[in-house]
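WD40 repeat-like protein, pasting as requested.
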Amino acid sequence: MRAADGTAILTTGEDRALRVHDLVYEDSGGIALAPPRTFPQPDSVNATQWYPSASRLTPETFCFVASIRDAPVHLIDASDGRIRASYPIVDHRERFVAPHSFAFNTAANKLYCGFENAIEVFDFASPGYDSGERLKLGLTRKEKGGQRGIISALAFSAHHPTFAAGSFAGSVVLYDEDTQTAISHVEGVEGGGVTQIAFHPLDPNVVFVASRRSEAIQAYDLRDTCAPVGRLARSGSTNQRLAFDVDPWGRWLASGDEFGTVRVWDIGSTYSVLFEQKLHEDAVNSVQFHAYQPLLLTCAGSRSQLQASDVEFSSDEDIDSSDDDEGRSGYDEAEHSGVRIKTGAKDSRLTIWSFEQP
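Structure tokens follow.
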């Protein structure tokens, strides 16, 4: 996830760490990623979100929010990892709730946090306990309607006071920001749970929806949400989030798939494929356009199932003699009781690609 001006990139990993990579302009005119600043966390990371105007050039805005399991929502300084503020969400058992999605409203003064059957709304300038307002979406068993499930995706429209909420139950509902009431339900959502929602930056009537275990990103016209008006095909049968990105000028949408192929679609008129190429050997879990440069960022990696070829049995002598070996098949290795297990992603990389002609 890149900062608004593209000066830094925020990543999360299976090692429960947050990393901030700075983009460095080289003397030759190229762009490279500086060694990351790593901020270890006490537990797994559910979600992150940059402050809307975050920039490395303005230290006061250079921060992001992070959801850590069994902890309050933290506002973290991207320069040194210190916690600037906390926004606790507490359930009826007085336990911390870690949201699965974040979104700032268009004025950047409210932070929306999605979790099971509800959204917690914080005044961003007033952190602390009892400062949030809870919008309950799931009604009781006796009442009909509502939006049930974990709120896994949130997005705000830049054109009118409307936001969309998607859940792992597969529902997408549009809400009025002022009254916080449901406006309409989006029908025909594919897959086994919504993972991302994005409004078109120029067309106020178009919204894009991505789901896990789905073979397409769906485009909807908000004037009639009974069925999608466009379908951007990609391979996505996995439960992993495969994030897409819309360029700031509303011309293209880019996404990767579970096999390492990256596609760019024309979303200005027809949803046709402009670019398609296999760039990684593993699932492309995120793509990002640079805000001002003809660059595309891709991030690859996934959990890999253990195969028979990944397990080797050896004697004690073999283990002792192999302590100094390095670079076995590009995997990390764990050894226990004479069993060597190869672990690690097939292609775990963060890569910047240029659209400029050589």
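Note for the archive: The first helix runs from residue 316 to 321.
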